[in-house]
Amino acid sequence: MTRTKSQFYLGIVLGCLAALIIVGYGLYEAWGYFSGSTITVFLPNNGATLNEPLVEIRGVATNSAEVLLNGRRILTDDKGEFKERLLLAEGYNIINFGAEDKFKRTVNKQLELVYKK
Predict the structure, then answer these.
(1) Where does the chain cross the membrane (predicted)?
(2) Residues spanned by the domain of 108
(3) Which of 13, 43, 88, 97 has a CA positioned 20 to 30 A from the CA of residue 60?
(4) Same domain, 9 and 31
């Protein structure tokens, strides 16, 4: 059984298309490793004015091996979500977040809050 030229070219095109799909999917799945850590704080909003000194901070740190809150290591769940409580000083407060991935790349974020009695 012999193949015609059009069948040969069709086989090459389909093979290249399949290889392109496999490589594209592999890059899509590995993008988290290439992009590094991210920190997103859900609550409270940056720049918020609070009337209570005790604040609960919620957020998520993706692709992180270690997460720091004001230089102190905090725990995250399997989705990277964290929930911590902090006691604010009266007036202007700066809360620093840091995250490091397994390749030692770091990302930092600041949360600014105001506590008024």
Answers:
(1) 7-28
(2) 36-115
(3) 88
(4) yes
